[in-house]
Task: structure prediction
Amino acid sequence: MAFNIMIVDDSETMRAAIKKVIRMSGVPVGDFYEAAHGREALDLLEGAWVDVILSDINMPEMNGMELLQILKNNEVFANIPVIFITTETSEVRVEEARKIGVAGYIKKPFLPETIKRILYGVLENAYAQRFSAEMADLDQKPTDNDGDF
Amino acid sequence: MNAELARIVYQNLSNVFEKMFFTVLRRFPDHDRVVAPAENYLEVAISYQGGRKGTIRFYFPEQLARRLTRNFLAIEDELLSDSQIYDMVKEASNMAVGSLLGDLDPEGSCRLGIPACRRCDNFSPVALAGEPGVCAFDSEQGMLWFVIEEICAGNS
Result:
């Protein structure tokens, strides 16, 4: 069973680029969902099941931190892992996100390999059994230092 | 702009542009002596506030903006739309400012505003050259201009 992935970013171009990187990464994708800000992401979640969310922080309407906070306080959505892909690089901000419950943190500018590595790690943690079945034939994962967790 | 700030700006912009857009920038210390004809630019402005407060503006020559978008999306020039190009220069500026503030504001007290982009047709950046917070970078597609106007520099 493939993973449904939501990308939340106010830049349509950035969403397209992230989508392309994920497609190339080998992660089996069911459906992609796209939202321009946190409010739109919440609306989409009312009608779709999503396995992982990759979100920017600095967005209009509702930023990524607010979205994460709402998801963690909602018993239906609390277990959906959220990965931030953001220019907000200070340790204070990373720590703030970690406290709320972010599953991964990717700093822009990023290398495609970073998205792949962190997405793999997060999916593996959240859906261990399903992930190993899906990824059984992939034996190599990239490594670099542009993200956390 | 003082030499140390110019060095930090260059380091951060250079990292973002090379890593994400495969575009090399070179420092252009004599920008106040540049004679640049008017051409079409895209201006991106991003405000920030917290421990420091101010606005950073970028002036991208249109050809450079197209190259960044083309390289990032890996598509042919004739397939580019204006909205993709505007989106891309906003994103590139956002990344550059986020990275820069990581150095200027290591405590992370600053919050970035949402980038705003507008066209500046027949614009000559020579008008900027005398401003104190200006530096310029050369690229194969013309000069990228960077302007920082800080209202409050905080304690750092």
Chain B has a mean pLDDT of 87. The radius of gyration of chain B is 15 Å. Helices of chain B lie at 3-21, 62-73, 82-104. The longest strand of chain B covers residues 39-49.
